[in-house]
Every structure is written in C-alpha cells, then in structure tokens.
Amino acid sequence: MQGLQKALNRVENEIVGNPYETAVGLTKRGEVLYVRKGDKTSTTFISGRKFLHTVTHNHPGNCSFSLNDILAISTSNLPELRVATKDHVYSAKITKKISLDKETVKELVLDVDFCVRLDFVPLINNGTMTMEEANKKHWHEVWTRFTKKVNWFSYKRTKRQ
Ligand SMILES: [Zn+2]
C-alpha cells in the first residue's frame, strides 16, 4: 500500500495544476496503467482495465466529487476514486458490493443534495455564507452526509501532501 500512496502523491502533484481534468489509473502497487485527459469539467476516467485499483483525477474548480464521479464509481468495480485539488485530496470507496443501478443511486444522492440546499439557502440569504462558499462546500457536505446515510460508501477529505 505504501508504494501506491507514494505514487499517488507524485501523480497528484503532477496533475493538480492542470486547467483541464486529467485522470490516472493505478494498480494496487502504484504502477500507472493509463493517463486520460478530459476537458474542463469531465473526463471518462474509469476503464475496465485489469488490475486497476485506484483512479485519481484533478478538479480545476477545487470542488469535491461531482455527482457523475460517484455514479461512475458506484456502478463499477473500482476500489477507490480520488480527486486532487489545490488544498485537499478526496477519496471515495465502495465498501460493500451493491447492485443498485445509476438511477437509484442518483435518487439517493439527490435527496441529500436537496437537504443540503435547504440548509444553505437561509445562510446565503442572511449573509452568513456567500454563493461562492456555498458552491465550494456543497458537494463536500453532500458526500459527508451521504456516507452516513448508506452503508456501502466511505468518503474522506485530507490535506494534500
Ligand atoms: Zn470528477
């Protein structure tokens, strides 16, 4: 696992400043299997490659996982998906085998998404939170709550090394 962590630090330092998304797929031992460049907002990043263990990618907008990121990992066999941003690294894992389709997962997430919006709106209206802060915090808050809601998803945010 140490080899993987080292490789991830190196790869994430390399891609984090890119103005477009770049996805890198690695094996359990930290060997790079592929690199894929996407546009500013999206990249089709998970391949069905044998020995694929962790896929990391950067978010130029500095946000946590998008809805599509989590839909992608929850309907794949990938053990770990990561996002690297200027300050943080986000990690998502599917901890149990689930057999939910994309639409079902999406509905579960959108319920949480709705609650977060409901909580943020008054804070924006009374000036406690700016729109910019709300946008930045939104998905981190959604995934933090989502991991408590379902028993097959784990989510972690750490400072980037
Ligand atoms: Zn993403």
Summarize the structure.
With 161 residues, the chain is of the alpha+beta class.
Describe this structure in words.
It is a single chain. This protein is an alpha+beta fold and 161 residues long. It has one domain (2-159): Cytidine Deaminase, domain 2 (3-Layer(aba) Sandwich). 40% of the residues lie in helices and 22% in strands. It has 4 helices and 6 strands, in the order αβββαββααβ. The protein has a 6-stranded mixed β-sheet, sandwiched between helices. Strand 1 (22-26) and strand 2 form a beta hairpin. Helix 2 (67-74) packs antiparallel against helix 3 and helix 3 crosses helix 4 (131-149). The chain is globular. The mean pLDDT is 93. Bound molecules: zinc ion. Zinc ion binds at residues 57, 59, 65-66, 69, 83.
CATH-derived architecture: 3-Layer(aba) Sandwich
CATH topology: Cytidine Deaminase, domain 2
CATH level 1 name: Alpha Beta
Find the count of extended strands (DSSP E, 2+ residues): 6
What fraction, in percent, of the residue positions are helical?
40-55%
Total helix count? 4
Tell me the overall shape.
Answer: globular
How is the largest sheet built, in terms of strand order?
A: 2-1-3-4-5-6
Which residues sit in consecutive blocks of at least 5 with pLDDT less than 50? Answer: none
Topology of this structure?
Elements: H1 2-15, E1 22-26, E2 32-37, E3 54-58, H2 67-74, E4 80-84, E5 88-94, H3 102-125, H4 131-149, E6 153-159
Parallel strand pairs: 3-4
Antiparallel strand pairs: 1-2, 1-3, 4-5, 5-6
Helix pairs in contact: 2-3, 3-4
The chain binds zinc ion.
